[in-house]
């Protein structure tokens, strides 16, 4: 599989799932535009390191995914966008009657509205190029729900719905739009939570992972960022040309329950 000559824009990609996806796309030969809301030397150094490691062109573009115009400016700054991976997201947990309004607005803006803005800006470029792949990183919570996560669940369900709508609008064009729905993924952020959770429950590492953190994930194993990246790369390949408007779960059987 080769994505040589394609340019991929991955939102929220200086760490975690987004970085894992970006690295796998670079491994397949795609040039990269990395993104987050910061503008640090290490962000640009990360792009340079990926460029050197995989022999692709990689750059970092700062853009705040909570601001519609910055979402669109990111695509413009990319210059071309053959592959769009909408990954940026945040989370907050609280009962709905106590859910802070600012947290609700931020989650909907970053997790859902940004997908609309980047897609709207990228589609004309894909049409002009005669080829395009849109992959939205949704969640198991785009297919099911959990208490105290109303904004996140609403946003991710919205991403799944938007994925289907975009797929139908582009069904007779060489453009596909799909959603990947991860369960729990072992990111640096999740890894950092394990020691505190061990203390809270008085459990060893293995027990807290299986019985607390992965209580809803039947495999009792985290997905990895490399697995998510491989899934996205597959959806961008020629083998996935007739896969559009669907969700692909990487959740250890969570949504099979």
From TrEMBL:
Range of residues in the leader sequence: none
Pfam family membership, one: adh_short_C2
Protein name per Swiss-Prot or TrEMBL: 3-hydroxybutyrate dehydrogenase
NCBIfam families, sorted: PHB_DH, PRK12429.1
Transmembrane segments: none
PANTHER family named in the record: 3-OXOACYL-(ACYL-CARRIER-PROTEIN) REDUCTASE, 3-OXOACYL-[ACYL-CARRIER-PROTEIN] REDUCTASE FABG
Keyword field: Oxidoreductase
GO molecular function, one term: 3-hydroxybutyrate dehydrogenase activity
């Amino acid at each position: 599989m080769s994505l040589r000559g394609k340019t991929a824009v991955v939102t929220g990609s200086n760490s975690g799932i987004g970085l894992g996806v970006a690295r796998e796309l670079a491994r397949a030969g795609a040039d990269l535009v990395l993104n987050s809301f910061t503008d640090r030397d290490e962000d640009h150094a990360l792009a340079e390191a990926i460029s050197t490691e995989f022999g692709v062109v990689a750059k970092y573009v700062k853009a705040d995914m909570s601001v519609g115009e910055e979402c669109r400016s990111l695509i413009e700054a990319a210059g071309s966008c053959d592959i769009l991976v909408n990954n940026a997201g945040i989370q907050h947990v609280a009962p709905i009657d106590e859910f802070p309004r600012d947290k609700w607005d931020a989650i909907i803006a970053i997790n859902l509205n940004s997908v609309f803005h980047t897609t709207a800006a990228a589609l004309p470029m894909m049409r002009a190029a005669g080829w395009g792949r849109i992959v939205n990183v949704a969640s198991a919570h785009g297919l099911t729900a959990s208490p105290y996560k109303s904004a996140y669940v609403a946003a991710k369900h919205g991403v799944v719905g938007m994925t289907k709508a975009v797929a139908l609008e582009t069904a007779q064009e060489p453009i596909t739009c799909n959603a990947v729905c991860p369960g729990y993924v072992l990111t640096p952020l999740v890894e950092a939570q394990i020691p505190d959770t061990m203390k809270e429950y008085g459990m060893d590492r293995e027990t807290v992972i299986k019985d607390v953190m992965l209580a809803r994930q039947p495999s009792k194993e985290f997905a990895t960022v490399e697995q998510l990246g491989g899934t996205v790369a597959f959806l961008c390949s020629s083998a996935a040309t007739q896969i559009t408007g669907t969700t692909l779960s990487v959740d250890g059987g969570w949504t099979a329950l």
